[in-house]
Specification:
By secondary structure, this protein is of the alpha/beta class. It folds into 3 domains: 184 residues, inorganic pyrophosphatase (n-terminal core) (Alpha-Beta Complex), CATH 3.90.1640; 104 residues, Diaminopimelate Epimerase, Chain A, domain 1, CATH 3.10.310.30; 109 residues, Beta Barrel (OB fold (Dihydrolipoamide Acetyltransferase, E2P)), CATH 2.40.50.460. 42% of the residues lie in helices and 20% in strands. It contains 18 helices and 16 strands. Strands 2-1-3-4-5 form a 5-stranded parallel beta sheet, sandwiched between helices. Strands 6-7-8-10-9 form a 5-stranded mixed beta sheet, with helices on both faces. Helix 4 links the parallel strand 1 and strand 2.
């Protein structure tokens, strides 16, 4: 507080985020490019930079092998856009199709690349468990550079260089997204080829997009990359991103992390969920504004189709749950579902029932699944415990993918249920709202909003602060929106008042009749429609009734 001139509230919010010294607070609040750690702190960076640099100098044919989600798309686009002026004609890419290929490296694609003459393969956002594929490339004399951020197994693939922040115990940014690891490779290359740095930073908006979409903690290095990227996104020179932002109504406006999550990322993800992820990559690489507008409209249409399929499958899954009775500590369901959207459906079920959820899409004698989790249930470790029943799996603490023979499904359900019984207590299955500070209603001022906005961008690891006020006067309330599904309030004290909105709180309006005071939990935000401060409700509780 003394060294940086912070208010007591902001200082406490920083400490809540494990920011406990003046220097770490300075970097959190004001950090920039100069505060990024050296890429050469990562194990394998020297080898990766030397190999990629030599391949570029020799004009060798290079395959960039990515993934079908936004993290993968932005990783491939970042490499191609940064390096294309140096060896564009000899750098090709491959994106597996979610429905046909599934996640990870595939021998058929690599064999085509070898036949084409590729002598170097760079993976982005994948490859850390591709042992057989790495062995094949080694036999063919092809150099393999793996860049990935997923959990590594006990043994690493046979590769010329492996970059994964989880393999460097002392690295200060172990939670980089796949596009963040790609950025570090290019940052390392730029230290050898300084002229490359301008091209890299011109595409920092892609790094922000992929990092936010992959829901990694927005702290430390990730926070700096996202802050720099969001600033660049507002005035991006990327023709495809311009078109996509126009399609979403965001072009020419400041872009916040939640708009990336809810507007941009789903549209880029839609093509990979329903068909060919190359549609999204082509948009990110587009140079013709007319084609970019057409591609952005196509992605928007695909996203609407995705939403319709998702709604149908969510209804079916909930009907299955209702028929089965009270869910146990983990939800496992299998159906004839579209494998491209079950991850989103699993997320919604996890949020609603507050249980780890695994949804499986049946395909003949096999099933492909997506899993989502809650705090206290590390999915990757849980699936490791059940590995004998799975064909393959991979992922993180909160999200994972898996494949299984349907004949092993009952055994797997029993095994994962046993793990959940061992790891999860009943208390852990009750969602809680963490209030960071109780304040007086008179403290809700434009100055408070300005201070809180200094903590943005918000996201995983750095949630938007939830504050609370007790015994607040309720002056007015009404339902708003279609079917009055939202709730608008006027709250405050004798001295001051402010507007509050509760999204999907409309049904509570009937319970407020005769109530003159409430306790409320909220986030302090700026209403983008009228540029006025407002409270976004997270919970409320009546205090007393009139009379």
């Amino acid at each position: 507080m003394e060294e940086l001139g912070l208010s007591p509230l902001i200082a406490k919010l920083l400490v809540n985020r494990q920011i406990t010294t003046p220097e770490t607070a300075r970097v959190f609040l004001n950090g920039g490019k100069e505060d990024l750690p050296s890429p050469f702190l990562l194990n394998g960076m020297e080898e990766a930079v030397a190999l990629l640099g030599e391949s570029l100098r020799r004009k060798e044919k290079i395959l960039v092998y990515g993934d079908y989600d936004v993290d993968g798309l932005t990783s491939v686009a970042l490499l191609l856009r940064t390096l294309r002026r140096y060896n564009s004609g000899n750098i090709i890419y491959y994106l597996p199709k979610r429905l046909e290929d599934g996640y990870g490296l595939h021998l058929a694609a690599l064999k085509k690349a070898v036949n084409y003459g590729c002598t170097t393969v760079v993976t982005v956002d994948c490859g850390i468990s591709a042992h057989a594929e790495a062995d094949y490339l080694a036999e063919q004399g092809v150099k393999l550079i793996i860049t990935d951020h997923h959990e590594p197994g006990p043994n690493l693939p046979q590769a010329a260089a492996v970059l994964n922040p989880k393999l460097t115990t002392a690295y200060p940014g172990p939670e980089l997204a796949g596009v963040g690891v790609t950025f570090k490779l290019l940052q390392g290359l730029a230290q050898k080829w300084p002229e490359l740095a301008a091209d890299l930073w011109e595409n920092i908006d892609l790094v922000a997009l992929g990092t936010i979409a992959d829901v990694v903690p927005l702290l430390g290095e990730n926070r700096i990359l996202v802050k720099e990227g969001l600033k660049a996104l507002e005035k991006t020179s990327n023709i495809g991103l311009q078109a996509l932002m126009m399609q979403c109504g965001l072009w020419g406006k400041p872009v916040e992390s939640w708009q990336v999550s809810f507007d941009l990322a789903p549209r880029l993800n839609a093509c990979g969920r329903l068909g060919d992820p190359a549609l999204g990559l082509r948009l990110l690489l587009e140079v013709d504004p007319g084609r970019a507008r057409k591609e952005a409209r196509l992605l928007d249409e695909m996203n609407k189709k995705r939403q319709a399929v998702e709604e149908l499958e969510l209804t079916e899954a909930e009907q299955m749950l209702a028929a089965a009775g009270e869910p146990g500590k983990v939800i496992v369901l299998a159906g004839d579902w579209h494998p491209g959207v079950i991850g989103i459906v699993a997320s919604k079920l996890t949020e609603k029932y507050y249980r780890p959820t695994i949804l499986l899409s049946r395909e003949g004698e096999k099933a492909k699944g997506s899993a989502r989790s809650i705090p206290g249930f590390h999915l990757y470790r849980a699936l490791t415990e059940c590995a004998p029943y799975l064909t393959k799996f991979g992922g993180h603490e909160y999200a994972a993918g898996l494949e299984i023979e349907l004949s092993r499904l009952d055994d797997f359900k029993q095994a994962i249920s046993t793990v959940a019984e061992d790891w999860l207590t009943e208390e852990m299955l009750v969602p809680s709202l963490e209030v960071e500070e109780v304040i007086e209603v008179g403290e809700i001022t434009p100055e408070l909003l300005k201070e809180i906005q200094c903590l943005a961008p918000f996201g995983a690891g750095n949630p938007e602060p939830v504050l609370a006020c007790k015994n607040v006067d309720l002056f007015a309330y009404r339902g708003v929106g279609k079917d009055a599904k939202h709730l608008k309030l006027r709250v405050g004290s004798k001295e001051t008042s402010c507007e509050a909105i509760g999204f999907h709180y409309g049904p509570l309006a009937a319970q407020l009749e005769g109530i003159d005071q409430i306790d409320l939990a909220f986030c302090v935000t700026l209403n983008n429609w009228n540029n006025q401060m407002q409270l976004v409700l997270k919970d409320l509780q009546p205090v007393r009734e009139v009379g």
